[in-house]
Each structure stands twice: as C-alpha cells, then as structure tokens.
Amino acid sequence: MAQDISKMETTQTAVEWLYKELTNYISYDDDKAFKQHEDVTDIVNQAKAMEKQQITKAFHNGMVTNSQPHMGKAEQYYHQTFKK
C-alpha cells in the first residue's frame, strides 16, 4: 500500500507513521495480540530514539560549522519540529 508522503503530517516522523499503520493490523481480541502490541510499542520506542539521533546528527552535520554548540541547536530543532 503506497502512501503519498506529501499527505503525512510535517511533524510526524517515519517511525511514528509506521507505528500508526502497523497498529491498524493488530487485533486486540486476546492476550496474545495485546502482548504483540506491547512488543511492537517497545520496538517502535527504540526506533524513535534511534531516529531522533539520526535527525539531530543530520541537522548538526548540515550546519556550516560543526562545532559542539551547534549540537544543542540540533536538539532544539528536533524538539520544535517534532514536539518531543
């Protein structure tokens, strides 16, 4: 199922979008399915942390000067853009 990227919320990361899509396929009818949902949530939270590092590093690397003070700006950019 191809998704038009331009319709994604601008503040939604790829991992958040994937999680939302995956949870549409999980049934909550039994304990096993609920456990699977918890497992997926744990994996997604790990992926979000990794994605945050990648986004802030990319922002930092895109700065004209790659000095340490700019890493703080990368964190600020991430929090402002993704409200996290």
What can be said about this structure in brief?
With 84 residues, the protein is mainly α. The protein has three helices and no strands.
Q: Please, could you describe this protein's structure?
A:
The protein is mostly helical and 84 residues long. The chain has three helices and no strands. The chain has helices at residues 14-23, 31-62, 68-82. Helix 1 packs antiparallel against helix 2. The longest helix has 32 residues, at 31-62. It is elongated and about 50 Å long. The model is unreliable at 5-9 (pLDDT under 50).
Supply database-style keywords.
single chain, 84 residues, mainly alpha, elongated
Low-confidence stretches: 5-9
Computed structural class: mainly alpha
Main β-sheet description: none
Helical run tally: 3
Got a strand count? Answer: 0
Listing every helix as H and every strand as E from the N terminus to the C terminus, the arrangement reads HHH
Mean pLDDT: 76
